[in-house]
Request: fold
Amino acid sequence: MSLEPDVAIGRELENQRQLRVEFLAEYRQTALRWARHASLSGAVLFTVFAAIAWTLEPVALAAQLMRGALASMCLVFYVTLSKGWLITSQNYVRLVSCAVACVLIGAVSMPALPVGNDGEFAIRTTPAIICGLFVLYAFLRLPIAISSSIGVAASCVAVLWAPLVSGGSEGVRTAVYLVFTNVVGVAISLLIESRERELFFQRKASEAGWNAARVGQRRAEDAEREKSQLIAAVSHDLRQPMMAASAHLGVMSNRLSEGKLQLAIDQASRARAAVDVLGETLDQLLVAARYESGVEQLVIESVDLNALLREVLDPLWSEADRLGVDIRVKLPLTRVVVRTDRRSLRRVLTNIVSNAVKFTQGPDSRRRSVLLAVRIRAGCCKIRVFDTGVGISGDRLDDIWRPFVQLSDCGRERDKGLGLGLFLVRRIIAGLPLHSVEVRSNVGRGSTFSVSVPISESSDDVVPISASSSAADIPSQSCFDLSDARVLVLENDQSARLALVDLLESFGASVASGWAVEQLLVEHFRDEQFVEVIVCDYQLSDGLTAPDALAAVRASLGYSPSALVITAEHVSASLRERCGVDVTIICKPFDIDDLMRHVTAAVETNRRRRVPWLNTL
Reply:
């Protein structure tokens, strides 16, 4: 059972919880700032009303003004409690203390005011309620006037009933008024604060959603712009090798018509080199697209870095010797084990080191060397590649990560790459967790690329890097001899099928081909021979794939020849499982020599298996 949906839900809940914590912290700061302003406003109002009351004679007007001041002060204080740090900090001890302080303030002021009979009290209290609500709405701009009026009106009713309960004592009347007003006020404050906080969260969540949408829109626009630039660059750099190949083929045709065979062979080699450039361009673009879209399957495991570096450097020694570049390696004394995707890190290091080798040479170079150094720091492995090349100016450092960029003044140099190596490096590093890449460079002194990789906590589960066991069994080009070998080609594209047939027949193979299984079998049974190998495209017509087609052909033959599957997909573990362990998979675009090596090896393997079977007849 897959746990990915549960993990995604858990991450979403954690993100929402973290977002709510951030909103709460911002809400507390906002509420505290608002509470300070409200408290200051209430203190000013209370002082003004008290000053007026003391300057006037103790008549009904002064009493009403004082009641209005106290009512306003009480309402402002309750709202301050609801919005301030007393509630938001969830410290109810402070809340109760402030409420008691409010009661004491009112207890000192209220007895000095003449109350009179119940009707007179109601008449005097009404202007106080109106004044308090006016102050609340005019100065604080909060839509809680109705709730506050209900609280104060309920207090008035309680005061009117107080004589029936306690004999009409003025002190009891004052105490009932104050206690009831504070209790109702605190309850209303709690409700207001809860509602205000939820509205604040909703408003902030809406703002965060809009901000995320704007950021996503900007990213989409940037991606669309980058895609347009990439398409423009790709269209240019794909046409260049196609044009070169077409020109070389035209010259080769002319040389053949003139009988100049050696010159025709030279032109054929150049045409093939142009096609190789085209294939390399497509391959790197497809790899970059897989990493960027997340289709590339990453296997994060413990990898022996020393063995991986040997695998990276082995193919580069001969190229470095040819260019006169000295590659030096500086490794720690102990074995270094990192947590990474082996194939991805190998691509990154291969591109960086090969670039260093290519650009560390020139007529003015005194010291042509590349240093690869590994250093361990704080649970992180730093792999640094130093070169003594021409260097990169600071204002061009960001350009090296763009596709098809070569910082050279002498035009496009195909022998120094396509300008896709570092573009691919950044795409790969962006998809690997806890990985990063940096570059420093000085013009005339060289560049330093630094790749950070996390250290593995345990070295017990290190995955060994084994050399290709079949490399020694694959013959060289001089051994491509398919005489008397029967090969079946199943390819639904006519031009690709004819090209494969011509190629195999040029090495002496007897080939039967077809675009579907039925047509292939008809062609084969016209001149039935023992089949050595089947070459099959993975994606055929009508949704048919290579595993099903191979099974059908083998069932019709009655035996199982070796098989090669040609695919444009990435060779993943699931693809190998679908095709079977006895099937060799080759990715498009492929090198002709590689294809012929695999075909020849498959023929020889099939013949070795067939000899004991023939001896039993």
Notes: The longest helix spans residues 170-257.
